[in-house]
Amino acid sequence: MASYSMGDLKKGLKIEIDGIPFKIVEYQHVKPGKGPAFVRIKIKSFIDGKVLEKTFHAGDKCEAPNLEDKTMQYLYDDGENCQFMDTETYEQVAISDEDVGEAKKWMLDGMMVNVLFHNGKAIGVEVPQVVELKIVETAPNFKGDTQGSNKKPATLETGAVVQIPFHVLEGEVIRVDTVRGEYIEKANK
């Protein structure tokens, strides 16, 4: 396993501290008037999403985490866990709803997603940034509501709710940005 020292740290680098994988989200090199230079970083945990602040001095070391990204097919939710399948080996993996997190509201049965593994254990799921989903419930249009920036809530086939323009109707398929949770446009179907 690779080891990182203070000089190797940078934004976006994945590191492991006390057996927990983190991603550096903020990096600052500090050279005070007195004393040696140090690095102050903010790190986000891949396990629980918490952001911590940590200071590294010359000589401090941290490890590279054993992370693996696999593209897998989402099969179904059994009530407690989401079931995923590796389409090459047909091996199935169950990930708790808690570990799947926000990604769950954008997943449809059969969708390909990225599953993150740490030391062989599935710890998270990442859906594509843009997904196409069908609107299953929204308010009907009223005359004069098609203009302006007014929006209405729409429930999608996964259960997620997004704000859409008034001209978009129930039953239509739309493209949604999963990072921001926002409507992009109607899908061309």
UniProtKB/TrEMBL annotation:
Pathway(s) per entry: Protein biosynthesis; polypeptide chain elongation
Transmembrane spans: none
Keywords, comma-separated and alphabetical: Cytoplasm, Elongation factor, Protein biosynthesis
GO molecular function: translation elongation factor activity
Subcellular location(s) of the protein: Cytoplasm
Pfam families named in the record: EFP, EFP_N, Elong-fact-P_C
Elongation factor P C-terminal domain span: 131-186
SMART domains: EFP, Elong-fact-P_C
Residue span(s) of domain Translation elongation factor P/YeiP central: 69-123
Source species, domain of life: Bacteria
InterPro entries named in the record: Elong-fact-P_C, NA-bd_OB-fold, Rib_uL2_dom2, Transl_elong_fac_P/YeiP, Transl_elong_KOW-like, Transl_elong_P/YeiP_cen, Transl_elongation_fac_P, Translation_prot_SH3-like_sf
Similarity comment: family membership: Belongs to the elongation factor P family.
Task of the protein: Involved in peptide bond synthesis. Stimulates efficient translation and peptide-bond synthesis on native or reconstituted 70S ribosomes in vitro. Probably functions indirectly by altering the affinity of the ribosome for aminoacyl-tRNA, thus increasing their reactivity as acceptors for peptidyl transferase.
NCBIfam families from the UniProt entry: efp (TIGR00038), PRK00529.1 (NF001810)
Protein name, entry field: Elongation factor P
